[in-house]
Structures are given as C-alpha cells and as structure tokens.
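Quick illustration for those who missed Monday's session on complexes.
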Amino acid sequence: MHGTQKEGLEVLLPAKEIAGRVEILGRRITLDYENKPLILIGILKGAFMFLADLIRKIDLPMSVDFMALSSYGNSTKSSGVVRIIKDLDYSLEGHHVVVVEDIVDTGLTLNYIYGHIKSRGALSVKICSLLDKPGRRQVAVPLHYKGFEIPDEFVVGYGLDVDEKYRNLPDICKLVRASE
Ligand code: IMP
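Prediction with inosinic acid bound:
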C-alpha cells in the first residue's frame, strides 16, 4: 500500500490473491464459452479494474460493453433504486452474456441489472462478481462466477470506492475509519 492513502485502511485481499482468483475465473469462463459468441458487460465504475484483468485471462474471441448506473443511496448504503446513466451500446441478440460486477451486497442493484439485461434478447445471461457479502442479501441473485465471499465490512480498492476515493489501490481493503 502506498503513500497517505493507507491511513484508516486494513488490507483484506492483497493484489496477489486477487490476481490468482481472477485467473481461475478467466479459465472457467474460457472453458464454459468455447465456440459461443460472448459479450462481457462491465458495470461501471466499480468493475472496471476487475473486468480489465479478467478479460486478459479469457482466451476466446469476445466483445466488451459497459453499463453505468447511479443508485439513490448514500455512499455506503444501496437504496435499490437504480437509474441507468449509460446503457449498452450493442444489441445482445445472438450472444451469450456475462455481467461483470464488483460486489453484491443487498443484491438490489444486480437484481435490477439482471432483469434489464435478460429483457434484451441474449441467448443466456450469467453473473460474475468479484466479491460477495452474503450476510446482507435482501434479494436472491444467481452468482454463477464468484471471486471471494467477504464479511459484512465496507471495502475499497481494486476499483471500489467510497466517495470516489481509493479506486486505484491494488489491494482490497477494509475501511476502518473514513479518512479525509
Ligand atoms: P447492492 O445493490 O446493495 O448489492 O450494492 C451493490 C453496489 O453497491 C456495488 O456495485 C457497489 O457499487 C456498492 N457497494 C456495496 N458494498 C460496497 C463496499 O463494501 N464497497 C464499495 N462499494 C460497495
């Protein structure tokens, strides 16, 4: 961890452990989608780093698209009311889709995205989330590919933020207390 950013943080998942797990997920997706037209949909902003690493471990021809959402919650709590800021650029017809998310907490956000994407004509839709906080689930969502289960702690780094900070940290860290 570097510089002044580490104050108030405690490493939960070091970069090396994340890289190992991402490689395994990439290999599994490679095996599952051989000879199938595949699109990975990254959910911005939190999943950008995970998606960038994951697609480099998928040894298949594939495309990438993005959705950006805003949730009407505060910075550490999801309200489940979601607005689409950026929708998909392409039709999903004739393609298999893997939705790539950073973390599933209550499940409300992903439940909304899953419904939206399933209505767009894909051959199949699966979900890949780097992190899962099962202790806080309010809506059941199918997690077909999962990186790590974590306890009910607010985490930052590796794309995840609090108030737009800490996304650049290579490790995933617990927020012990908010720093200025
Ligand atoms: P859910 O709708 O409660 O499942 O929340 C999902 C979204 O809330 C994620 O995509 C994140 O953007 C955000 N979120 C939930 N927990 C955390 C966390 O521990 N750190 C950073 N963002 C989080």
